[in-house]
Every structure is written in structure tokens, then in C-alpha cells.
Amino acid sequence: MRVTRRGVLGASLATSLLPRIPARAADSLIRLAHEENGPGSVRLINETVAAFEQGHPGVKVSQLYLENAAYKAKLTTMLQSDDRPDILYSWGRGTLDAQVSAGVLRDVTATVQGWREDFTPVALDAFRIGDKLWGAPFTVSGVGFYCNKALLARAGVDPAHLASFDDLLAAVARFKAAGIVPIAVGGGEKWPLHFYWAMLALRLGGKPAFDDARAGRNGGFAAPVFVEAGRMLQQLGKSGAFQPGFAGAQAPDSYGQFGDGKAAMTLMGSWVMGVQKANAANGQGLSDDAVAYVRFPLVAGGHGTSTDTFGGVNGWAVTRNAPAASLELLHALTSPHYERTMCERNVYLPAVRGMSQYLTSPVLRQVATEIDASSYHLLFLDQTLGPSLGSVVNDVSFALATGDTTPEAGAKQIEDARQAEDM
């Protein structure tokens, strides 16, 4: 996930003004780097750090916050410095692979052994490379359609009948006929549009299609499945599904539009329930009772299943020479106690088994249940494929939605980028 995906508008430090991470005096300082800026998450991290320091006299935790883009841009340099963070915010596979290959992370398999059974398989697998664990998760997210019940009712759209892509296209037509914007999307940031391309490809080809694409088998990302996903995304764009000016809209714009009741649906991660309220004009947005959650529709003739899910996994990794106490803080930031508190406050979806019951939001509980039953959880492609190839996926998804490329050319562009990385 990105900070911009959560869309919480607030102060962030300009990168040019950021202090260096404090130098360590022996093992008395643990340096924690992250990109969390949501009020609920920041509060929980601060509470956990304070309790940790109280229970570990003489140990202090220094937090370094960077907004998402700056965090990604500076992380590699920070990890190569003598003042590297001891614990770092991680999205799991993709960036994690590169960090492991560079030798900057600590194998935490033995450490996590004590509580690894607490985690859901979907969450833990994001930090597993081979038979080793290189971090621990604290949250998962799931992408689906969040729907304004009142606007659906006005247009005569039953959320229970949004089961197929054809149903989605029919709903778009109904919304337009009723004078309602069908879908709000922050197209200007591009990554929200890659949700459509990725989910369509997942419904068309399932896990095997992505396994083959990553390995360059059967045409890689230029395979028919990905061409067809592009065609369907382009069809959706041409149908007028998205709000006027979507190509220039930022993610918070779309959150606010949905929260203000000016769009019937938005395809977004589970964090949207919080940010649509924060970005609404009245600061309150839609109540949970006013929102229906609908999983992404199936595609006729597709090989994917309704239990294939798409989203992210976020967690923490520990650097190679971090002080021993860092491993105890890793546990504190991913423990069942942390997860239960996170759920009771409806901050994020849990990465630990049995915690979904503590979510008080019925919408979030529904999403969590869906992920718990997931047969395959595809992680955000623009993160797991790495920054270069992931950026191409975003660019192509944007061009498909705006009609600026063809499905064939778009798929070839992604495959060419994949091959270039393998050279």
C-alpha cells in the first residue's frame, strides 16, 4: 500500500528537510523507518513504541517518517549507509527480494518461529523467500468495489447481481441513465487503474497466468490473457464508467467524490473506508451502513475463481546488523495484541488469524473474511514487480483506460520491460 492510497491528508516532512537517522550509542537506539501517516496507525505505532521503551529501560526507538514516494526513493540509499534503519517498513515480495539479494536484511526465520503460526498464510507468504522468512506482516488489504447503497438503489442496481463483467457494464449503463457517475477513480496517479488490469487478468487466467508471465513462459505478459485484460479495461473506459476528468484526478479526489456521494462505486483497497471519510467535504463521508462491498466480478470463460483475491501485505523487515532488541520490537509490532487493537479501532485488516472478529466495521469484516478464504492473493503488481516494471504496468493501464494505446501494444510494452530486466 501507499500513503497516497490511504489518502490521509496531513503534514509530511519535505525530503530536503529530513534529518539524518540518529547515530546509535551502543545498542541503546533502535531506528525505525516507515511511511505510515494515517492517524490510527501512527497512534498505534507510537503507543507500541512507548510501551516497548518502558519495558526495555535504556533502549530508545527513533522513528523516521518519509512519505511514500520519498521513502521508496531514499530507502536503497539509506540501506547502504552506516546509519541504516534497524527496522524498515516493507511491502513484502518484490522490493524484499532485491534487499535480500543485496545482503542488507536479517534472516528472522528462527525469531519469528515463536509466533509464525499466528499469521495467516496469505500474509506470511509475502515475507517468505524459499524456506526463510525475511520479515513479519502486520496487515493485509483487499481490493473490491465499494458501493453507495443509496445510489445503487436509485439506479436500480442490485449489488448482489454484480457477479460478472457483463453485469458491471450493464450497471454502468444504468448509472449513466440515472445521471449518476458510475465509478470514481484517481486516474492521474495511474496505480488505481492497474487494479482493473490486474484483476481482469486474474479473473481471466488465475494464478497460472501470473506464474507464467513472471517466468516468461507462454508469451509472458504479452500472452492472450493480458491482451484480453487490456481490451476489457479499454472497453470499460470507453463505456464512460469513470468520472469526467478521471485521467487528471488524484486518489484523494476519488476518495472524496465517493465519500461525498457523487459516485456510485469505487474500486479500491480496504483502507478506502477510512479515507473516504477523511476526504469528504464534511469530514464524515459515508457511514459503514451506507456502503456495500462487492468482490470484483468474474469473467465468462475465465480460469480464475471468486476466491482469487488481489491486494497488499505490509509488514516490517530487520536489517542485518540491527541490535538484538530490534527483534523484540518486531514482535511487538506484529503481535496478536497489536493486531487485536488495530482491529478494534478499524485501522487495518489483520495479518494474524482469528482477529477479524474484532473488526467492528461490517464492511471491513466482510473483506477480511474474503481474504481469510483466499485461494491465491495476488499482490499489487506495481510493488511486487519492482519499481521499473511496476511503473510500466501503471503507465500501460492508464493508456488503456484513456484509449491511448491498444491492448496488444500495451501487453507487448509490459513484456518488453520484463525481458529488459532479465537481460
From TrEMBL:
Q: Which GO terms describe its cellular component?
A: periplasmic space
State the superkingdom. Bacteria
**Annotated SUPFAM superfamilies:** Periplasmic binding protein-like II
* Compartmental location: Periplasm
The record's section on InterPro entries has:
Bact_solute-bd_prot1, SBP
Q: Its family?
A: Belongs to the bacterial solute-binding protein 1 family.
- In its UniProt entry, what is this protein called? Extracellular solute-binding protein
